[in-house]
Design goal:
By secondary structure, the chain is an alpha/beta fold. Helices cover about 30% and strands about 25% of the residues.
Length: about 300
């Protein structure tokens, strides 16, 4: 089954060209199906790119999925037009009375700022608390994962000597874990961040379970003991060229950043990168929607 998105959302054209099964509200309303309602708090600066990345993965499932995009009310994006945000996004106050089967909280380019000094931290704390009762499963990405680990479980972050950027190999620790069904023993995933969290702190926490890690990039997939919260420190949703675009952007700004590791052939930025994570990205999101959302959410929220 498809994802349901607004007719005029720019990502729609991209997904249609890729033959991703989508439908608009008119067609979806004619189907007598209980769809999954997924909320996406999009904290990424280039919101339209992030929309396409997540919708592409959420559309690769036999389940019908309704998508609602959430923006912060306490901080206005400088990289996305106000018209786009007004047309396709809502605020927390407008949806706080609702229940959602799943939620995604994206990364954000604020990892070098202390959590409580981020402009929208107070608003995010309210959302974190609300997810405990109003969302079946919440998936936190990159900075969103670090923020969730800090707020819910007291696991802090620390600054890295240089930016962690590249495509790294990861191992899994429990091949019986439903979230990892079908995963290879070793798989690849992109990372792009300036901070990290302690693997030891995660392992020693009775409330957390480390599912996957990388020798070079550190802890990767973590879930809470009750499986309501999933933290992913990297970016399985990234497109093939995303790291190259970030690297080019940083260099153009005069930043001293390393060439993304294990990404460009022969580590040569002039060569076209090869995607080695797409299949596991699709598998991860399908597993999450099936085992952590669809199989756990009530048919009717009360």
């Amino acid at each position: 089954m498809p994802i349901k998105i607004p007719k005029l959302l720019p990502a729609r054209e991209i997904l249609e060209e890729e033959n991703i099964f989508i439908m608009d509200e008119d067609r979806a309303n004619t189907q007598d199906i209980r769809p999954l309602n997924i909320l996406i708090l999009n904290l990424m600066p280039e919101k339209e790119k992030a929309e396409a990345q997540f919708l592409r993965l959420l559309g690769n499932t036999p389940l019908q999925v309704n998508i609602t995009f959430l923006k912060t009310a306490t901080y206005e994006s400088k990289n996305t037009s106000r018209l786009h945000l007004e047309q396709f996004y809502t605020t927390f106050e407008e949806i706080r009375h609702k229940k959602f089967d799943g939620m995604i909280i994206t990364g954000a380019p604020v990892e070098l700022i202390p959590f409580d000094q981020v402009d929208y931290w107070g608003e995010l704390v309210k959302i974190f608390e609300w997810t405990k009762t109003n969302v079946t499963s919440t998936l936190h990405i990159c900075w969103g994962a670090q923020a969730a680990l800090y707020y819910h479980y007291g696991v802090g972050k620390y600054e890295l000597p240089q930016k962690c950027s590249g495509v790294y190999s990861h191992r899994i620790f429990d091949d019986k874990e439903k979230l990892l069904h079908g995963f290879d023993d070793v798989f690849y995933a992109p990372h792009s961040r300036h901070t990290d969290v302690s693997e030891e702190a995660i392992i020693n926490s009775p409330d957390l379970k480390l599912l996957s890690s990388s020798e070079e990039a550190g802890p990767f997939i973590i879930h809470s003991a009750d499986r309501k919260h999933i933290m992913v420190t990297g970016h399985l949703e990234y497109e093939t060229a995303t790291l190259a675009q970030e690297y080019s952007r940083d260099i153009s700004r005069g930043l001293d950043v390393p060439v993304p590791q294990h990404y460009f052939p022969d580590d040569n930025p002039d060569r076209k990168p090869v995607n080695r994570w797409r299949s596991h990205a699709n598998l991860f999101f399908s597993n999450w929607l099936n085992y952590y959302v669809y199989q756990e959410t009530p048919y009717e929220w009360k």
